[in-house]
Design brief:
Elements lengths: L2 H24 L4 H5 L9 H20 L16 H21 L2 H5 L1 E5 L6 E5 H25 L9 H7 L1 H4 L3
Antiparallel strand pairs: 1-2
Helix pairs in contact: 1-4, 1-6, 3-4, 3-6
C-alpha cells in the first residue's frame, strides 16, 4: 500500500471519529440552541451538520456512481437530530468502507462529475478530489466546533493528532 492509500484510509477513519465526537457535543444542546441562527454560512449547528452530510452524499455519488445525492448544498436532509445522527453514522461507515477499498491505481485515476450548481462537467484526479473532500469536512466541523463553543459547550478535541494518538495504527502506514 502506498503513502496516499494509507493516508486516505487514515483520513476516512479520522473523519468518522471526529464526527462521533462532534455529534456527542451537539447532542448536549437544547433544540433552540441547536437550531439558532448563529451567523455561520449554513446558519446553525443543525444547518451545518446537514450541509456536511449533504456534501458527503454528493461526493460519494461522484466517487462511486451509487447512492442518493441532494441537489442543494444547503439541503436540510433531516429535521430531527437523532435521524441526522443515524444518517451520519451510516454515511461514515460507507466512507470508511470506500477508502479502505481504494488501491493505488484508483487513487492515481480520475473521476468525472458536475457541480451541484453547474451543468459543466469536470474531470479531476481522484487524489486531489479526496484531499479537497476531507479538508472540506474538517473546515465545516471547525465551524460547528466554534458554534458549540459560542453556545457554552465544553471544548471537544477534534485535532487529527488526538485521533492518531488514540489510534496508533492510524498514525503509521499499514
Amino acid at each position: 500500500m502506498n503513502g496516499l492509500t494509507s493516508h486516505f484510509r487514515m483520513l476516512g477513519h479520522y473523519n468518522a471519529w471526529a464526527n462521533v465526537r462532534l455529534y456527542d457535543a451537539a447532542a448536549r444542546l437544547d433544540d433552540t440552541q441547536y437550531r439558532a441562527d448563529r451567523g455561520a454560512f449554513f446558519k446553525s449547528v443543525h444547518g451545518t451538520l446537514n450541509h456536511l452530510l449533504a456534501t458527503d452524499m454528493i461526493w460519494m455519488k461522484r466517487f462511486t456512481g451509487d447512492g442518493d445525492a441532494p441537489d442543494r448544498l444547503d439541503a436540510i436532509l433531516f429535521e430531527a437530530f437523532d435521524a441526522l445522527r443515524a444518517a451520519r453514522v451510516a454515511a461514515d461507515a460507507r466512507i470508511v468502507a470506500y477508502v479502505d477499498r481504494l488501491d493505488e491505481a484508483q487513487i492515481a485515476g480520475t473521476i468525472s462529475y458536475r457541480r451541484v450548481s453547474s451543468p459543466e462537467q469536470f474531470v479531476q484526479q481522484l487524489a486531489p478530489a479526496l484531499a479537497h473532500w476531507f479538508n472540506h469536512q474538517t473546515h465545516h466541523r471547525g465551524q460547528v466546533h466554534a458554534l458549540l463553543t459560542g453556545l457554552g459547550q465544553p471544548a471537544t478535541e477534534l485535532d487529527l493528532l488526538f485521533f492518531q494518538r488514540e489510534q496508533p495504527k492510524a498514525a503509521s502506514p499499514a
